[in-house]
Specification:
Elements (H helix, E strand, L loop, with lengths): L1 E4 L2 H11 L8 E4 L7 H10 L2 E9 L4 H11 L5 E7 L9 H7 L4 H13 L1
Parallel strand pairs: 1-2, 1-3, 3-4
Helix pairs in contact: 1-5
């Protein structure tokens, strides 16, 4: 299951179109981060074993971290993968180049999604 926020919703949707396993992957787009929709998160953590968060900001301290804090506070043991921009200096480039570098482009995401479906 994939949780997105911001412009990454489109990248996730594009990745799902490329995936041979798209029917096995649920996608939820959170339009806002604060306050988190805890009612929905409880439902999702109870329903899905693997949760991938995807954001267009730095992964450290962002949306994925908030979801991880929620999971820890409620003692969920789900597998959680947080994707976002690495917390490092990145050279300049186009949005597409930087997304490829950060493995946030549709093709990279499709490979990752398919890996998690199979594992």
């Amino acid at each position: 299951m994939v949780l997105t926020t911001g412009t990454m919703a489109q990248n996730a949707a594009d990745a799902l179109l490329l995936s041979e396993n798209s029917e096995a992957i649920a996608h939820y787009d959170f339009k806002f981060i604060k306050p988190l929709d805890e009612e929905l998160l409880h439902e999702l953590f109870q329903k899905f074993h693997t949760i991938i968060t995807l954001e267009d900001g730095v992964a450290t301290g962002g949306f994925g971290s908030a979801v991880a804090e929620f999971a820890a506070a409620h003692q969920y043991q789900n597998r959680l993968k947080i994707l976002g921009i690495p917390d490092e200096f990145i050279a300049q480039g186009t949005v597409e180049e930087l997304q490829r570098y950060s493995k946030l482009d549709a093709k990279s995401l499709q490979i990752l999604f398919d890996y998690y479906v199979k594992s």
